[in-house]
């Protein structure tokens, strides 16, 4: 209370407000000659008359109120009369000039961390556990939105191709790293289940979403629990199943599957490393192929299908694993063992051949490039746009960046 005004108390032991504050049902600072609120709003500030001497429960001091207007308590004052309560308020500097707009209720929130502490803090231990579980259970979504521009230019295009893999598997029986004819005669069970999962994934909608998600989760769980096979063909099928499942887990938009995607990453790394020795044992075809009889062409084509599917799968798997870590904000170190001794044949004509005759014709008449240790120098110098298939684009963009490869295609009269 201001020092120039004596304290007066009504019959209920409660201090009065000025008439305007009483009407507005606002707290009055009892300033003289006018309270702070009335001064700010340029209103006439008047106080009700003080109780007379001898009133019950109060003392009389009219020293500073000899000229107070004689007015009775208005109806709004009745609503302000309460039973005496004891509050202890800290002293405020210059309280006579303070109003509701002068208080910043968010002043304590100085950072996101302090907001976190405010939202997720509780004095009760059990409450803290519940809040901690609720806070940490939300997985970080796989998203390319926050990848640095340098990295994004090397993975974004490949990510879009990976998203299409389940649909490509259904419509074309293959992917950019798995030849469509690879499993023409026999498909291991692990890939059969993945193939079925692709069909459900592509057909997923609001009605069957839960069933499809459960099917994918169960099949992935079974594959995670299974030991890695020893035969090259079965190991290759396992890698293809991993790639398809990981695509569905990462890009399907269901955050409940992200924990399985995390679990699958080291297994993908393991299967790719297990395939490396088999890839190193493959011999490249040399010389031309006779068109008749077709025995040599069929043998060469079958060898090419397995050899290049194996080589492409190794590179694509490591590429996918690295992209997944990037999406989670983790940078993977370069893997030198992928470069040393690595070989892959790049030719859209060979990869897209649909018969032994077409393959032999493309082998004899079309340019193909054996890329060693990821050195694409010859490809960039000598290749034409029609020589480059989707897998080749993924690898080239991963090394050079999307803008450079778009420019390379443009200089040759084509587009990426």
From TrEMBL:
> Which SUPFAM superfamilies does the annotation name?
Zn2/Cys6 DNA-binding domain (SSF57701)
Keywords, in A-Z order: Metal-binding, Nucleus, Transcription, Transcription regulation, Zinc
The GO terms describing molecular function are: DNA-binding transcription factor activity, RNA polymerase II-specific; zinc ion binding
- Top-rank taxon of the source lineage equals Eukaryota
**Which residues belong to any copy of the Zn(2)-C6 fungal-type domain?**
17-47
| Residue stretches in coiled coil | none
Q: Which SMART domains match?
A: GAL4
A Pfam family for this UniProt protein? Zn_clus
Q: What is this protein called?
A: Zn(2)-C6 fungal-type domain-containing protein
User: What are the leading ranks of the lineage?
Assistant: Eukaryota, Fungi, Dikarya, Ascomycota, Pezizomycotina
């Amino acid at each position: 209370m201001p020092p120039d005004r004596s304290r007066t108390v009504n019959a209920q032991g409660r201090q009065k407000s000025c008439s305007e504050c009483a009407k507005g049902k606002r707290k009055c600072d009892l300033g003289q000659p006018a309270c702070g609120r009335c001064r700010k709003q340029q209103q006439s500030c008047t106080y009700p008359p003080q109780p007379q001497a001898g009133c019950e429960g109060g003392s009389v001091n009219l020293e500073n109120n000899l000229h107070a207007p004689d007015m009775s308590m208005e109806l709004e004052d009745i609503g302000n009369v309460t039973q005496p309560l004891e509050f202890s308020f800290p002293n405020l500097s210059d309280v006579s000039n303070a109003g509701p707009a002068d208080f910043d209720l968010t002043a304590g929130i100085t950072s996101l961390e302090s907001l976190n502490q405010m939202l997720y803090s509780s004095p009760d231990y059990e409450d803290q556990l519940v809040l901690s579980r609720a806070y940490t259970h939300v997985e970080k979504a796989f998203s390319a939105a926050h990848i640095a521009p340098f990295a994004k230019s090397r993975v974004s295009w490949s990510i879009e191709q990976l998203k299409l893999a389940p649909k490509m598997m259904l419509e074309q029986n293959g992917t950019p790293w798995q030849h469509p004819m690879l499993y023409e005669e026999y498909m291991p069970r692990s890939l059969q289940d993945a193939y079925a999962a692709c069909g459900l994934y592509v057909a997923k909608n609001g009605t069957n979403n839960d069933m499809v998600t459960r099917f994918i989760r169960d099949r992935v769980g079974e594959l995670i629990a299974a030991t890695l096979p020893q035969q090259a063909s079965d190991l290759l099928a396992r890698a293809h199943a991993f790639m398809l499942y990981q695509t569905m887990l990462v890009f399907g938009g269901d955050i409940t599957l992200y924990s399985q995607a995390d679990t699958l990453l080291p297994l993908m790394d393991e299967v790719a490393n297990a395939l490396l020795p088999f890839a190193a044992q493959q011999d490249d075809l040399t010389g031309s192929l006779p068109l008749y009889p077709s025995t040599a062409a069929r043998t060469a084509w079958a060898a090419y299908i397995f050899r290049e599917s194996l080589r492409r799968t190794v590179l694509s798997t490591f590429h996918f694993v690295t992209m997944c870590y990037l999406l989670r904000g983790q940078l993977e170190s370069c893997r030198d063992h992928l470069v040393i001794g690595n070989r892959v044949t790049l030719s859209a004509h060979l990869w897209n051949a649909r018969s032994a005759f077409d393959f032999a014709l493309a082998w004899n008449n079309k340019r193909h490039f054996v890329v060693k240790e990821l050195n694409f120098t010859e490809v960039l110098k000598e290749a034409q746009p029609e020589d480059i298939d989707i897998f080749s684009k993924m690898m080239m963009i991963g090394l050079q960046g999307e803008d450079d490869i778009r420019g390379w295609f443009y200089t040759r009269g084509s587009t990426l």
